[in-house]
Amino acid sequence: MPHIHIRHYPRDFTADQLREIDEAVTAAVTRTFALGEDAVSISLEPVTPEDWQAQVLAEIAARPDQQVRRPGYVNES
């Protein structure tokens, strides 16, 4: 614990980009939760633009109480 699951549009990441994501996210989580690096896991899940509404935006709308940050493109109405 904790596990960070990042969904994103499909893309190819370089080894350096993956290392950057790993280091930045791990540093923030270990500092905030006061845990060692071995306690953190991170996964990346590509989601096609066609599936984004049903898979990601639907979850954002259904779980507003669990969000730390909402995307600026979500309609607030």
UniProtKB/TrEMBL annotation:
Sorted UniProt keywords: Isomerase
Annotated Pfam families: Tautomerase
Stretches assigned to the 4-oxalocrotonate tautomerase-like domain: 2-55
SUPFAM superfamilies from the UniProt entry: Tautomerase/MIF (SSF55331)
Membrane-traversing stretches: none
Superkingdom per UniProt: Bacteria
Residue ranges of coiled coil: none
Gene3D superfamilies per record: Macrophage Migration Inhibitory Factor
Species whose genome carries this gene: Streptomyces katrae
Name assigned to this protein: Tautomerase family protein
